[in-house]
Design goal:
Number of strands: 0
Distance between the termini: 24 Å
Shape: globular
Number of helices: 3
Strand content: under 5%
Largest sheet: none
Structural class: mainly alpha
Length: 79
């Protein structure tokens, strides 16, 4: 992971986690990499994905396409 990548996004990740858990009683998972995120999609069902389009190990567009293969009925193809 590039130096500073996580630290610049950490406040946003924390805010999203706090909002979703406080107001929607959601379970929130986060992953250290796009690869880890995709592996998690194979392990359990998810209702919502939030990720950056610029990721250190893979483009967000590619991650979106990979997730669409696991969730073909709910993916709209819009970004």
């Amino acid at each position: 992971m590039p130096s500073g990548w996580r630290s610049t996004r950490e406040p946003n990740r924390r805010l999203i986690r706090e909002l979703l858990t406080a107001f929607r009683s959601c379970e929130v998972d986060d992953a250290a990499s796009a690869e880890h995120t995709f592996e998690r999609t194979l392990q359990r069902p998810y209702s919502l994905f939030i990720f950056a389009m610029t990721l250190p190990d893979m483009s967000g567009a590619l991650l979106d396409r990979l997730i669409a293969r696991v969730y073909p009925l709910v993916h709209t193809g819009s970004v």
